[in-house]
Amino acid sequence: MxxxxxxxxxxxxxxxxxxxxxxxxxxxxxxxxxxxxxxLGSEGLPQWASGPASVAQAxxxxxxxxxxxxxxxxxxxxxxxxxxxxxxxxxxxxxADVIRVDLNNPYVSLDxxxxxxxxxxxxxxxxxxxxxxxxxxxxxxxxxxxxGEGAPIGGQVSGGVVVSTPSQLNGxxxxxxxxxxxxxxxxYSFEGLLTAEDGAQFPLAGINKGAYSPEDGSSTYSxxxxxxxxxxxxxxxxxxxxxxxxxxxxxxxxxxxxxxxxDKALSMAVPKGAYILRTHGLGAQFVKxxxxxGQKLSSAYTLKSKSxxxxxxxxxLQMMIGGHxxxxxxxxxTSFSRSTSSIGGFRARTALGYxxxxxxxxxxxxxxxxxxxxxxxxxxxxxxxxxxxxxxxxLDGGGSTTMVDRPLAETSATxxxxxxxxxxxxxxxxxxxxxxxxxxxxxxxxxxxxxxxLLIGQKATYSLKGYDTYYNPIDVAAGNPSWTASxxxxxxxxxxxxxxxxxTATIKAASGxxxxxxxxxxxxxxNLSSLTVGTATAPLTPGASVSVPVTALAENGASLxxxxxxxxxxxxxxxxxxxxxxxTVDSVDPGVTTGYAIARYxxxxxxxxxxxxxxTPWENFENVSYPIAFTSNVNGVTGTAGVVAGxxxxxxxxxxxxxxxxxxxxxxxxxxxxxxxxxxxxxxAAATSMSLDVMGDMSLNWLRAEVVDGSxxxxxxxxxxxxxxxxxxxxxxxxxxxxxxxxxxxxxxYVVNVEExxxxxxxxxxxxxxxxxxVMPSLSSEAGLPKGTAAMSIGSKSITVNGAKKxxxxxxxxxxxxxxxxxxxxxxxxxxSAAWDKNTKKIMVLRGAKALDLTVNKKEFVLNGKRQTAEVxxxxxxxxxxxPLRLVSEQLGLTVKWEQKTKTVTIES
Length: 909
Description:
Oligomer: single chain
Helix content: under 10%
Number of strands: 76
Shape: globular
Distance between the termini: 98 Å
Mean pLDDT: 88
Low-confidence stretches: 1-60
Structural class: mainly beta
Strand content: over 45%
């Protein structure tokens, strides 16, 4: 009977195999996210011949420049590169970040990080895993099935213990470091044997694997007629899900069988130090015929190189992480070992490689964000060869690409660059961490940490941080450092600085014999290019209250939040107040239909325009003509979205219903009701608030809306942090501080089930929406302004407005080919007001939704908080302030025409 399960060849393979440790199964492993899963059969057959021709073409156009480097810890440095290439005749540039690890340095090491708590089937961001494990730098790792439990596709080893075995897929490479600190990149297969107490043997197919379709032709399903081991590193109760097989499971503790469950899974997690043998078909028959409770069961395994057929004892490895195709071999770009069609394009990339000497490991991350154009795999090959990689392979990329590193003297790793999602990090199954074991050294240097740009009135805290001879952080604060600041732009007291006036100051700190300094620039109004309020419009209604956070954009591109104490507010047309970033209307002046809240920072102004506004019905779902669809971010999440007949208090009307079932999903799960395809439904004007009726399901999930503007920028609106009610409820949401740029479109209404505390929230439910309205003050801010035509002639003290001639006290003049008039003449005819500040020689012009700030003898002007430049400037002539007619009129939305023969100016609105 033994021969049925194990032939002679397989018996001989038992020699030299590693016995499976019974109590050492921990997951400290490697990570990634599989975009195109072999499990789903989407990567197709290997493309053995792809690569060389395109590689040669790309090599000549890829130029690489090293921008700089910084030590992370003894034995690891961060290097930043800029690359330039030509794509379709156009130049593209980007950035790549490379951590070089010196394996000759005894204090630095590489290891795998796994999910949460070092366990498989959990997911966490790269930064989260780094913080949890104490890594000084880290990068995302292996591919994985996004719809699966959360286990890597490739092999995974930590400290000589196999955490997960390689899948039977073609062309998949792995990176490893041996315990004698030698790097290896190769393809590996897994071979294992189970031996019963009676001597019967059966092949062990793998350890801690999700379900997939092997590419060896042996079976349609990975777990059919097979036996797999699941250790306590596997936290999911399904082993695995979607396996298309019914299991027989065996619990083994200290090499002794303690439970057998025939034709059904054991309803338990794997106990610590034990493992569950999961079998099916022939594997289950082996259990039935040869295993019994109380008997011994032993296991043995080995890894084997697919290229050399040599066996590799996992106990000899410090770590191993799986990847994808090989990229570089013998210092040159090489043919892809696997089809790359489904992971092509110019994306963020992650890769691993090592130098010809084996001394250096290169951890590579290519940026794809506002500063970098991403890379193709072919470009990545050539980049790696350019920086010294002798052999290298691809890791998971795209939205998964994430790198964190610990800046010098800091105590924790932070995001090295923005991901494809900005500062958001995708939750993944594993990652590669860089660790230091260096002892505490002597102080080598100190540095001041804190903001280098401040606004007047802003307070900032600075800290003195040090690093030792191993470039690891060391506490220097105990020495009670002394602080000083130069030139009066900044005052400093015990590390807290206050910006007093515009200028550049040097902050110095000393601790014992060590000292450090940093330059801090305090921005004045002249240093700003724009001043933006979080909401540009607001309702001019007593009792109305909106958030008015103000952001300053410096001429050097720095963006800062302006402290409320740094602003001076002037209210025009109404009584009210601005406190702690909130504008409140107490009363409206008689006859006023448009008001202004003018914010000034060191002479630079911006304004909120207030106008009478009522709630505008936007969608009641009674006559919907656009498509509504259900979508999700996870394959396992199902549901429906559409317009249905209302019930209870909504009987007789129609509502938008969103039903969801997330029981087959994992991680952070979304259930979307998507409006009008990918474009959404238009919100025509700036909205300060939103109201809607929502039918809750007491699921305790998070309820949100997604809005996209014309540039494609996405904003998220929290409708309810927790759905903690049943039945219908009216919600009102303040949009005034949302930063949404209108016109925009409401794209999705959706439910979110976040990972933290998922056991407390329902994974199934139904919510509904009705009567969505917006308050859009900007629709009425221009209402009531006079319309018509006005004409003036040079030298004539009269103006004709809509056919009626009126006298004016100052005639228009021409100076330097520009026509100048008193601004009052224009505003009397077309509405608006002007205010003169004799101290600053500024003129603030308000008309409709426009706030125009002019300065005598300066060509620069500020319109609605943005600095611009004109060809001419306002001037003072014979004691009267005159403004350039064309500049002012056109900026206020008027049209100016010039008749040369009669020297007549015509203004139209």
